[in-house]
Amino acid sequence: MKKVLRTFLILFALLFIVLLARTFLVKSRQLQVPAVEKIALNSDLLVNHFVGALKIQTISYDEPSRLNHAEFKRFHDYLREIFPLAHSQLSVESVSQYSLLFRWEGADASLAPVVVMAHFDVVPVEDTPWKHPPFGGQIAGGYIWGRGTLDDKSNVLSQLEAVEHSLQNGFKPKRTIYFAFGHDEEAGGRGAAAIVQVLEARGIKPDMVLDEGSAILEEMIPGVLSPAAMIGTSEKGYVTVQLSMKGTGGHSSAPPPHTIIGELSRAVERLEENPMPGRLEGSAAQMLDYLGPELPFVSRFFVVNRWLFNPLLVFGFSKLRAGNAMVRTTTAVTMFNGGVKENVLPSHATATVNFRIRPGETVKDVTNHIRKTIANEKIKISERPNAMNPSPVSSLEAQQFEMLHRTIKQLYPSVIVVPGVVIGATDARHYTRICNNVYRFSPYRVTMEDFRGVHGTDERIQVQNYLDMIRFYVQFLHNAAQ
């Protein structure tokens, strides 16, 4: 027995030494590049340009008939007014009625172009009070307030300001650059899909695509002391499923043991209690590869040695809402309908469940999971339109990722650059069929309080934050166009 115990202790000690060695010897994946000089900007003019754009109510609705066409036309006119050089020296065309495609021709036609993306539609405003009017474009407390300040007019305006600035200073790209601005990203992205069809029909295969996505996260990743610039190398898939059940109805005075509402309730409870398994793979694993060397010792010990502690890490991520969304396909019961009167047994009821699918799983995997989990053949499972599988994971070894990493470090030297998965949907997903190097990053700093304003109340961005976005895109265009 003593010999067995001694052998065990020796093996444990050897394992611990290996774990410590890996923790101490892991190398940082952060690029070491000198910061660029901060370019001077006419702050008041540029902020006023942005404020004017926020006042135009380019609201997307799921029902196209509700679209306010006059506001979208007004937005086009406004861009022509404030960006005269971009409109005179770049070719501009409307696609799918209101989406815009700018083409800045490069000097070397043999180089594949770069596509820089954003969208100028915004979500509707709920009937909740705002500190400042959602379409007022007001400046207060060092912030610009309004719907679209983060999602996503800040990217549209800062990109075009970068173009205007570069043209004013005589910059000529070697590589052709496209700017693709969708008008209905919040309603499915038909405009972006149409732009992809245009590019594909012209035989254009971009060298790289950059769209909105994650951002510079401040105090949002547990254990990470420095701001983290997260580049989305993939995004989750999406499917909404309706569970429906029919019954005989009748008077509530003589009910069955379980009404159809009761049976559906049991089904959705099973789905919530039995989510699809969490896994640290793909973009989530890449994130830990980049984060690990930058963490304090104890956290680094577990992350660097995740080959051993993987189940513990998945468990930890699963306890956080954002972390859980990164490691598994999420289940969200969003609507429940049934019954017409308090004393009438329902003859029909439905429950709507939305799934955001992690890379590595598919829509089919989700529907198989639903059938197995609810285990009720009387419940009909119907898949809603617009389901999509997760996007492919873009490479970290590509020079395009290195260039983006380098650009971030040039503008934000103190941040940690990490890859990750975008848990929502972006227009970038449409481009994965014509480009392998699709990345998602919005170059603004965001705290958890700021993040709550996206699709919520009191959306805002710091004035200095917005100006730094323009500086970022000036540098990105100069780096990408070579």
Summary of the model, kept short:
Helices cover 38% and strands 21% of the residues.
Tell me what you see in this structure:
- Strands 1, 2, 3, 6, 7, 8, 15 and 16 form an 8-stranded mixed beta sheet that branches. The protein has a 4-stranded antiparallel beta sheet with strand order 11-13-9-14, with helices on one face.
- With 482 residues, the protein is an alpha+beta fold.
- It starts with a helix and ends with a helix.
- Helix content is 38%, strand content 21%.
- The longest helix is centred in the first third of the chain and has 24 residues, at 2-25.
- It is globular.
Features:
482 residues; alpha+beta; 8-stranded mixed beta sheet
Count up the helices.
Answer: 15
User: Which class do the helix and strand fractions yield?
Assistant: alpha+beta
Helix fraction?
Answer: 25-40%
C-alpha Rg (nearest Å): 25 Å
Question: Topology of this structure?
Answer:
Layout (H helix, E strand, L loop, with lengths): L1 H24 L17 H12 L14 H14 L1 H6 L1 E5 L3 E6 L9 E6 L19 E2 L2 E3 L7 H16 L8 E6 L7 H12 L6 E10 L10 E8 L1 E10 L3 E2 L8 H14 L8 H10 L5 H8 L1 H13 L2 H7 L2 E9 L5 E2 L2 E10 L5 H12 L5 E4 L15 H13 L4 E7 L15 E9 L1 H4 L8 E3 H18 L2
Parallel strand pairs: 3-6, 3-7, 7-16, 8-15
Antiparallel strand pairs: 1-2, 2-6, 4-5, 5-17, 7-8, 9-13, 9-14, 10-12, 11-13
